[in-house]
Structure formats: structure tokens, C-alpha cells
């Protein structure tokens, strides 16, 4: 009997924009409350409280002449070059995003042709059997793309799939909403390949969508400033408290289900790659997950964090973080052959997913 096909990560790449935006850059912003009244709190205090809750100190924005497909292309190029992979051998290119290409100062989304087709074009891939498509799934989009790629590979339909997460959230945020300080831009890419190595690769995954009471926790609305000149434009809005409570309630349970599907013990998990949404929320999710196994506290250094310097770049956070760890660009964060890790994400929809992977 032949060996089963496994899905192995054979390459990673990223693009971190050069434009650095520090918390102090928001000091002169005029933020408004949800009821349309101007926030009367001292801006220094607002920023201090924001950093204490989210851990975000700074974030990156794309240059004015860049958009999401350009960032995705640069991350894909990095992944191909870093792994010395042949672009013509890609069977699929899956690009996870939520807003398409949004030009600087425009606020209008552009998704035709798809971002994946644009990336394939920019890479100069001639092979027509390389299928390119987009995946909007909230912040868990890149991880959902990895799950879909695993199905393609294990079915025998594909041998090599590139999954990219790219977003320019700085183009869809309301400058008068303090939540705008959370978001950032970036892209991360991962190449998943078929292998007969039964000991490594994707071991299990699980996804969920909750909509009855949760579908509108994130949505598009007008500016918080009632008389803003761009009052007809729509901006990304979030009910932060409800998202926090939702993530803390449901993400650890989906992580546990994924661990059980893989048939491993929680003590075998060496790293937790979680969507970099909010430092306080991620810490709480990690603690709640290990509490399900009666751990008093999670193992030290188990959860790499990039949010303090890169902010929340939605679908780009996990693949960017993974690339940084694999290329040993983060202090005290490495993985070695045989290590088992868990990926987890939560976002608009409301969607959740998790995946177990062995290196």
C-alpha cells in the first residue's frame, strides 16, 4: 500500500511596507464616539490606554502607489525566491483578502480581475493550469486558503499551491474612529507542496461560521464624524467588545477540536501562531485554550507576537509571522523538525478556524 499524501510547507515569504506609523502620529487626531460626539478625553491618555490593551506601538502602511495585489506579488516573489521554487509548477494561487485593491485616497474597492489573477500576471506565469482565485473570509482568510489547499493536495488534484494573505486596511479605516489605530497593511505568502512524508505536514483543521447573532460585529458604515467631507464613503467598523468576547468564547474550543482531530496531546504543541488581532485578546485566548487542559498557565514563549511592531494586517498577520519565525527573524522564536504547531484565527463573518501542522 502506498504512502498517503501530506501537505508540506516548502516556502514562505512576506512583504512588510516601509511606511512606519507610530502611536504618537495619532496625537493630533480628532476621534469621535459612536454617537457622533467628539471624544473629550486627552489624546495622550487615549493612546496610552490603546497601547496597554492592544500591545500595538507602531504599524506599517503601504506606499501611496502600492495596493493589495502589489503587496501580494512582492510576498509571493519572496516565497518563490526563498524556496527556489519554479513558479510554473504552481497548480493554484489563492489570494485571501477582504477589500481588493483600494487606491490611496479613493476608498473604492477594485476586484476585477481578481487579485490572484493580478499576482499571476505580475509573476509572469504562462501555465494556464495554474488556477488563480480570491478568498474573502475575514481575517482567517489565509488560514482558510491553507485548508482549501490541503484538500486540493490530498485529493491528488494539485501538487503545489501558493496561499497569500494581503490587505491594505489603512485605505478603509475611518480617521475619526480610534479603532483605526489597530489596523495596518502587509502581505504574507506560503507554498504548500504534496509529499509522501506521512510524519509531517497538515494533520488536521476545523472551521466555523457564526452568524445568527454575530454576523455584524464587523461591518462597513459611514464615518463617526457626522459632517465629514467623505460622508458617502464606507469604512470598516468593529464592535470591539463583542469581537473580544466572541473570540475568547469560541476560538479555544475550535483549537481544542483541531487538537483532538489530530490525535495529539496538548503538551506536544511547541508554538501557537494566532491571528495578531489584539495583544490582550490573544493572550486571553491562549490562556483559555490551555485552561481547557487544566494548565494553570501556557508554556513560556509558545506564542510568537508581531502585533506591537506590525499592528493588525488582517489576513497577512499569520503568514508574515510564520515567515519571520522560520527565517529566525524573531528573538527566542524558532521551530525545528518534528515540532507540532497550531494556527488559529478569528474575524469578520464571524469566522473561526484552526490547523495543526508538524514540521
Automatic annotation (TrEMBL):
Domain spans labelled Beta-ketoacyl-[acyl-carrier-protein] synthase III N-terminal: 133-209
All residue ranges annotated as the Beta-ketoacyl-[acyl-carrier-protein] synthase III C-terminal domain in the record: 260-358
Origin: domain of life: Bacteria
CDD domains: KAS_III (cd00830)
Residue runs in coiled coils: none
Gene3D superfamilies: 3.40.47.10
Keyword terms, alphabetized: Acyltransferase, Transferase
Record-linked InterPro entries: ACP_syn_III_C (IPR013747), ACP_syn_III_N (IPR013751), Thiolase-like (IPR016039)
PANTHER family associated with the record: 3-OXOACYL-[ACYL-CARRIER-PROTEIN] SYNTHASE 3, BETA-KETOACYL-[ACYL-CARRIER-PROTEIN] SYNTHASE III
Protein name, UniProt field: Ketoacyl-ACP synthase III
